[in-house]
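Priority: medium. Attachment 1 of 2:
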């Protein structure tokens, strides 16, 4: 009985504690999650691409691009922590990084359409790098 109560106590602490990771997703996080899902599928598919699956790949590219375009119009949570005098430059940097991602995504769609799988794999690597750089600079640290 004591162990059941302990588990319940810690579960409640997780739900009400600071830095709660169970909070509802922000609109930006929803777009980022869509981007993550689409990119994960593309990354896995480009390990051994199949010509007949092009429509599926292009659908993921379209989803990635759409979510990226939506995310570009939003502000990262980290913006609130940036000093007021630096916010505009911070947001310009964020939007520039998102524009770079969108450009690479468009290029990825073109090379997939053309069946240039080696180029597609290279673009996957570039997109992955842009994503890492963006997260390092613009993503809020988790508590």
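Attachment 2 of 2:
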């Amino acid at each position: 009985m004591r162990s059941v109560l302990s588990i319940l106590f810690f579960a409640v602490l997780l739900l009400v504690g600071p830095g709660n990771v169970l909070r509802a997703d922000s609109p930006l996080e929803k777009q980022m999650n869509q981007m993550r899902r689409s990119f994960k599928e593309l990354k896995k598919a480009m390990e051994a691409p199949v010509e007949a699956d092009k429509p599926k790949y292009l659908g993921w590219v379209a989803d990635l691009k759409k979510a990226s375009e939506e995310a570009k119009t939003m502000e990262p949570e980290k913006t609130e922590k940036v000093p007021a005098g630096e916010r505009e430059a911070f947001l310009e940097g964020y939007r520039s990084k998102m524009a770079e991602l969108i450009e690479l995504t468009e290029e990825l769609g073109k090379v997939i359409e053309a069946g240039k799988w080696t180029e597609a794999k290279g673009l996957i690597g570039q997109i992955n790098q842009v994503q890492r750089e963006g997260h390092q600079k613009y993503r809020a640290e988790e508590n």
